[in-house]
């Protein structure tokens, strides 16, 4: 995915939520390979989901999926995106 093409929109998003611009480096790494990768984001799960929601809304003609896990054993989640919106989501499981 071409994260660089929507860099300015993503930087505005990061600034709006007081997130470090280093997050953009992590996002670029995560999206830079055609193969599944494992990237460590120093954010909570909901912030990461919001980041990918924003990325999807900037890349209207791109379909992709992302899954993640947090520090808690049950903090796992999945999202699938197409045409700028989430088409499937499984939220973090709760006890």
Word description of this protein:
The protein is an alpha+beta fold and 95 residues long. The chain has one domain (4-90). The protein has 3 helices and 3 strands. It has helices at residues 7-16, 22-31, 45-58; strands at 64-69, 76-82, 85-90. It has a 3-stranded antiparallel β-sheet with strand order 1-2-3, with helices on one face. Strand 2 (76-82) and strand 3 form a beta hairpin. It is globular. The protein starts with 6 loop residues before the first helix and ends in a 5-residue tail after the last strand. The mean pLDDT is 89.
Q: What number is the mean pLDDT? A: 89
| Side-by-side strand order of the widest sheet | 1-2-3
Could you name the ranges where pLDDT drops below 50 across 5 or more consecutive residues? none
Tally of distinct domains = 1
Largest sheet: 3 strands, antiparallel
> What is the string of helix and strand elements?
HHHEEE
């Amino acid at each position: 995915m071409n994260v660089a093409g929507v860099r300015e929109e993503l930087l505005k998003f990061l600034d709006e939520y007081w997130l470090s611009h280093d997050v953009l480096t992590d996002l670029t790494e995560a999206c830079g390979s055609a193969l599944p990768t494992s990237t460590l984001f120093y954010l909570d799960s909901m912030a990461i989901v919001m980041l990918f929601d924003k990325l999807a809304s900037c890349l209207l003609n791109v379909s992709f999926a992302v899954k993640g896990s947090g520090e808690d054993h049950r903090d796992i989640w999945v999202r699938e995106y197409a045409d700028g919106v989430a088409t499937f989501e499984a939220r973090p499981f709760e006890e």
